[in-house]
Known about the structure:
The complex is a heterodimer of chains A (about 90) and B (about 230). Chain A is mainly α and about 90 residues long. Chain A has helices at about 5-25, 30-50, 55-85. Helices cover about 70% and strands about 0% of the residues of chain B.
Amino acid sequence: METFELITLIILAVVMIISAVMAVLSKEMPLAILASGAISLLASIFFLVLASPDVAMTEAAIGAGLTTFLFFIILRKTDQNKTENEK
Amino acid sequence: MKNSIAILLVLAFGFFLVHILQLYHTQETLNKTATYYNTNTPAEVGAANVVTAIVVTYRGLDTLGEVTVLFLTAMILGYILRQGGKEKVTKNNTSEILITAANVLIPGSIVLGVYVFINGHLTPGGGFQGGAIIGTAITLMILANPMRTIREGLLHMVESISGFFYVLIGLAGLLFAGGFLDNRILPLGTLGDLFSAGAIPLIYSLIGLKVGTEISSIIANINETGNNTVKL
């Protein structure tokens, strides 16, 4: 593996770890959801580099796309219930 | 006290993980099974994507099981969520940016999903990935406009018909070719053509439709569930 490629991958891995920590510690819920989506997106790049495009596609479609949107739908539903209960 | 036990457990786990990592070495050659798949796929299955050949034909029964698990998940989720009562979403406070972006992205993603599952035997991806992309498009549609009614009867019909024909194609393989889910009931064609690899494009299209409609119906159920307490 070339040095440039290796450095890029290490930077990606560090960004992945940072977003994982952010997903756990963030007080802002949308930020946490986006961070957990970013982990999947970066993981799919890793799968692509490791020569498994099929797995990369699954990770990108389900981890980054579907789960993030699902979390946002649930977030809006719980927020609605919260405001209705407070009334 | 509790924390120190957790730290000890994590350290022990890390120790074993490092140990396993030290044992790891990259294989220079393919192992026996992988060599078999690599050399015999073009002649036996005719699919340019070896992963698809393994998933749909060599390990076709496992894929049928996988589809069944997803079907059961959708059914059980539908049953549990139905206990919460139905509730129409009455107000729509979505931002204009999301609505416009969704209108641009949805048609493209549905076409991409169809492309991925039809070309499953040629390019990376396949029924599950294509279905997930279509499901994502429907999720985005519901996220942008929660008041939109999804015709669940149509979704269930598409899902049942594709599941039924998937099993039917499998049984046809038992009758006319080598075994259950054998793809050689249709001519194999030339390697790399769209209409090649026997029944694989057909099976993967059915799986793609099934997965896409299942995910869509789960999301639609979640969106329409009311506030009642769920009793199991």
